[in-house]
Design a protein that fits this description.
The protein is an alpha+beta fold. It has one domain: Sufe protein. Chain: A (Alpha-Beta Complex). It is about 55% helix and about 10% strand. It contains five helices and three strands.
Length: about 140
């Protein structure tokens, strides 16, 4: 489990990091690098109930709630770019309560728009981001 991050601070750090990339390809390469940081999801968790519907590349997320009301995530995607999205979302949401997670959605969507991340994705990848957030919200 990772430490809870301050959503605004983390998003601002990512915006600054992403501002250094001169083109969309570099931004996607950065997402691939983030994806490499995502811990491996155990094979036994790659099951239908953990599969995010609507994602072209298989995306799986297992959500657990601790006694303190905070949520933690394990995930996998067959696409390294989408793994990067998953890693960023987990960094933002892990260790937060349901209310904090739900309050983060608008900030995350603004971040995707402001950084041009949505523009740099194929349509299928762009919808993956929304599908993942929707899946997490439904499972809370």
């Amino acid at each position: 489990m990772i430490n809870t991050v301050n959503t605004d601070k983390y998003l601002n750090e990512l915006k600054e990091e992403f501002s250094f990339y001169s083109d969309k390809r570099e931004l996607l390469e950065a997402m691939v690098e983030k994806g490499k940081e995502l811990p491996k999801m155990p094979e036994e968790l790659l099951i239908k109930e953990n599969k995010v519907p609507g994602c072209v590349s298989g995306v799986y997320i297992k959500i657990s709630k601790e006694n303190n009301g905070k949520y933690y995530f394990i995930g996998h995607s067959e696409s390294m770019i989408v793994r990067g999205y998953v890693k960023v979302l987990f960094d933002l949401l892990e260790g937060k309560t349901k209310e904090e997670i739900l309050a983060s959605e608008e900030k995350i969507n603004s971040f995707v728009d402001e950084t041009g991340l949505a523009e740099s994705m194929l349509t299928s990848r762009a919808s993956a981001f929304g599908n993942i957030i929707r899946f997490i919200k439904e499972k809370l």
